[in-house]
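Sync notes, pocket subgroup
Present: LS, DG
LS reminded everyone that the earlier model was apo-only. Rerun requested with zinc ion included. Inputs:
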Amino acid sequence: MADATGAAACDLLLTGGAVVTMDPAAGVIEDGAVAVGGGRVTAVGTAAELAGLQPSRSVDCRGAVVLPGLIDTHTHLYQGLARSLGEGRPLWSWLADFMWPYAAQLTREDVRAAALLGAVEAARAGTTALLDHHYAPADPETVLAVAEAVESVGLRGAVARGMAGTPSAVARDHGLAGGLFAHSTSEEIELTRECVAARPPGSRVAVWPGPHNVTYADQELLRASAELAHDLGTGWHAHCASTLRDPEVYRDAYGTTPVAWLHDQGLLGPRSTLAHGIHLSDAEVRMVGETGAAVAHCPVSNQYGADGVLRLRELRAAGAVVALGTDGAAYNHRQDLFECMKQAVLVQRMHRLDPEASRSDEALALATREGARLLGVDAGVLAPGKLADLTVVGLGAAHLTPHHDVQASLVYAARGSDVLMTVVGGEVVFEDGRCTRVDEDAICAEALERATAVVRRAGIA
Ligand SMILES: [Zn+2]
């Protein structure tokens, strides 16, 4: 047992399952148990070791596995009402000709409905925290409505407020002036400051600065976002080197590449969280690694758009934090990190033609421990003192029988729909097939009704 001192009573005891701690010192505990009290893990050990505790509630987890909650480090919940549309386009056309016309039609209530839908889907699939990159529409009331929606389902995380700022020449050339990106850099920063004040670091769902894309955003906006994050104690989040075109466009405009510029400006560090980070030179990989910056890797989305393959091994060896993201309901079509874990391994193997290029235990680390590092939450590992954010996955189904290696079973055989229970801060937010805090049927019905109307208005159906 890791530490049972003072844990004679606890709120919740999950006992009898395999416990995948993601703590290198503890590994996987067969016939294990996890005790929760005051929103945190109080003890981890074998079921026998924790048998003397006096829990308010005990859950029999025999035939199941208990693991840290999964952490989605890049999604766009507002895209949920466009799920299943937009197929077969390169990323820029997908954005300019499909996603932005859709986004321009969204009302605040549409976005709230999409965020509720996505958060419910995530909770059902064992996700306990997420980073939502929200930029449509990004007025403070809507940004805060998204945060409220995520929190109302019971999840934690951050909403990165999307911004482009005063149009750069690159932005004007690519149709990024006006519309969704109508504010000057100073206006954007003040609007974001207002949102962070309403949901500062430490909030269950906080707000971060979220410049849309390093290549196209105003350079001054990127400087100001990093500065704001430093001053207010948040992270900041932006798309970066998502496609081959990003560094090419940047080089043509500025004579350097996006990551090299960020590094040159001193903007890379643990607060910098870059979505995708695919097309990096060797030098840029070193820059991300040596500064301790983070990359949100979205393997399903990368394959959907044929955008490229992350340099996973090099980035991790260089010291970068690499975590997993779904990247939106319309560029992935699921908020399911089980699928992302499997694809994270497979895409590396296929790209390198090397079956040892990545493993299931690495994928689990990206989805849990590394996700917590990127998001800055004290979770991702089941150990005493950590936040009690965890997931219980049933192993009884035919597609999970047998499960000689529990970690491999979770990554290669399990699906989000195998999740039995999702717990955030010690609170059960999904159990017995239902989210506990919200009316899922009403959320799905409203989302469907709004989705039908918005795709008609946008002319994309
Ligand atoms: Zn994205």
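DG: Residues 440-458 form the longest helix (19 residues).
LS: The chain has two domains: 9-69+384-435, 70-375.
Action: DG to write up.
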